[in-house]
Structure formats: structure tokens, C-alpha cells
Amino acid sequence: MADKTAILFSRTVKAGKRVYYVDVKQDRRGEFYLSFTESKRVQDGTELSAPVFEKHKIFLYREDMMKFGEAFREAVAFVESQEQVQERGQWQDQDQEASAMQAEEISAEQFGFDVEF
Residue 85 sits in a domain of what CATH number? Predict the structure, then answer.
């Protein structure tokens, strides 16, 4: 059985001032679990002091991993679909603006008067 603090597998995701760690560990009973850690730098270090980090942890045991994974995939899919809707909405707005400008040009041409004296 592994030491309770031993990391059996690890991945790091760097994101600006935040770093995310996804670790696989084993508890005293021999059960595997995931440990998610968010580490955020809240104060830069100086010559006299070390930087200060704020850490948050979540532990996820094997029996909940499939449910968690499915919820995560659904949440990611939702965000992706919203981004596509926003992008399509922006394109539609641009298309509507272009159509309105074309309609104004047509209206001006069709109903414009040239008066010559």
C-alpha cells in the first residue's frame, strides 16, 4: 500500500496566475482517488519574502468518477454550444447590418431623384 501522500500519477495545467494539478493518489485502505488542486498566486514574491499562493482541493473517489466525468463532458459541451451560438449570433448581426446597408443603398437608388435644370 502506498503512502497516503504519494502521488501515483500527475498532470499539470498552467493557466496564467493559476496552476491546476490533477493527481492520482491511494488512501490508507488502498482505494484510488483523484485530487484536483487549484493553486493561485495572490501575492508576488520579493527579495525578502516568498510568493503567496492560495490553494483549493477537491477529492474524487472511484465510485463517483464516471458520474463526475459525464457531468464535466456535458458542461464542456454546453459551453461550446453557447460559444457557437454567440459566434453565429455575431455573424447574424453582421449579416443583418450588411443587409440593412444594402437595403438603404437600394432604396436610395430606387427612390432617388435626379433633378436637372
Answer: 3.10.450.700
